[in-house]
Design a protein that fits this description.
about 325 residues; alpha/beta; DHBP synthase; Rossmann fold; 2 domains; eight-stranded mixed sheet; four-stranded parallel sheet; 14 strands; globular; binds threonylcarbamoyladenylate; binds magnesium ion; transferase; ATP binding; tRNA processing
């Protein structure tokens, strides 16, 4: 069972305890106006990896990054005029805007699934206060095991994730009860990526134009499986390596027996202790470092296809797939 704090009667205690846990790189369950979120520091790869691990998500989908206000959002994303208008009208509230990631943003690529865009929303009430106190954006998918319906009460969260998380901030039932509406501005048009807690009519009224519902230029959301190229480094990728040739980089997991390590341009341990959560947190960074070592090929030792290993192997298979 997780610890519960009733934030309706003790909001200061909730903020104090939650910021302490978030600072350790661990997730907390928190109420938003839409659904309960499983929230963690969006700038900390280990913290984000914990979210995926806790939810049992087989894939690194892009996560919505929650901000305290428009000013914080503007430090991480580039706003076009329509997005700004929507933000000013509906934030805080159940609207997520997919925007170009701003140069210098500290949001980690694990939260955006390596995309050059970021889904941002400013939640109402306590969640916004917590983010303001924490001072950094929180990545937060719904607080439920992958494949189950979203939690809209602290009891739902406890029943599903109570034995896997430390703290549940309890504000009773969520006012909206469905996830936020997600839109993206493309070529001056407003594309609806996910219907949700803010109606299309409300958005159309402020945007002054009808929403586009057809699939657009970025199939990322509708089909996260098509993101292969985002995970492909410059070097070729070779999986299940038992040896390394000169000119190859080596990325290991656990303590495997690998022949010819001294030939490698660089040797990196995703997790020497065999912790898949740590490995997931290191993955993209290490692929970039291996690439930067000048290797023609990155050789990966085998990674177990369980827990977060499934997501890691999914990315590695994409990276190793024939390129165009
Ligand atoms: O109401 C909500 O939005 C809840 C509460 C907790 O705030 N959060 C939520 O977050 O549903 P999450 O992380 O499960 O939503 C992820 C979805 C992705 O599957 C995708 O549809 C969209 O948000 N998304 C996030 N970033 C994106 C991006 N850069 N490009 C396109 N879609 C993105
Ligand atoms: Mg969900």
């Amino acid at each position: 069972m997780a610890r519960h704090i009733d934030i309706l009667s003790d909001p200061e205690g909730g903020i104090r305890e939650a910021t302490a846990i978030l600072s350790q790189g661990l997730p907390v369950a928190l109420p938003t106006e839409t659904v309960y979120g499983l929230a963690a520091d969006a700038t900390n790869p280990k913290a984000i990896a914990r979210i995926y691990e806790t939810k049992g998500r087989p894939q690194f989908n892009p996560l919505i990054c929650h901000m305290s206000d428009l000013a914080m959002a503007e430090r991480h994303a580039v706003f076009d005029p329509i997005s700004r208008k929507l933000a000013e009208a509906f934030w805080p509230g159940p609207l997520t805007l997919v925007l170009p990631l701003k140069a210098g943003s500290t949001i980690h690529p694990l939260a955006t699934a390596g995309l050059d865009s970021v889904g941002i929303r400013v939640p109402k009430g306590f969640a916004g206060d917590l983010i303001r106190a924490f001072g950094r954006p929180l990545a937060a998918p719904s607080a439920n095991t992958s494949g189950k319906i979203s939690a809209t009460s602290a009891d739902h969260v406890e029943a599903d994730l109570g034995d896997r998380i430390e703290l549940i901030l309890d504000a009773g039932s969520c006012a909206v009860g469905v996830e936020s509406t997600i839109v993206k501005i493309e070529d001056g048009e407003v594309r609806l990526l996910r219907p949700g807690g803010l109606s299309a009519e409300d958005i159309e009224r402020v945007a002054g134009q009808p929403l586009q519902r057809k699939a657009g230029a970025t199939p990322a959301i509708e089909a996260p499986g098509m993101l292969a190229s985002h995970y492909a480094p410059g070097a070729a990728v070779r999986l299940d390596a038992h040896n390394v040739s000169s000119g190859e980089a080596l990325i290991r997991f656990g303590a495997p027996e690998i022949e010819g390590e001294k030939n490698a341009t660089i040797v990196l341990d995703l997790s020497a202790s065999g912790d898949l959560s740590e490995a997931a947190a290191n993955l993209f960074d290490f692929m970039k470092r291996a690439d930067a070592s000048g290797a023609s090929t990155i050789a990966f030792s085998a990674i177990p296809d369980e827990g977060l290993g499934e997501a890691i192997n999914d990315r590695l298979r994409r990276a190793a797939a024939p390129r165009e």
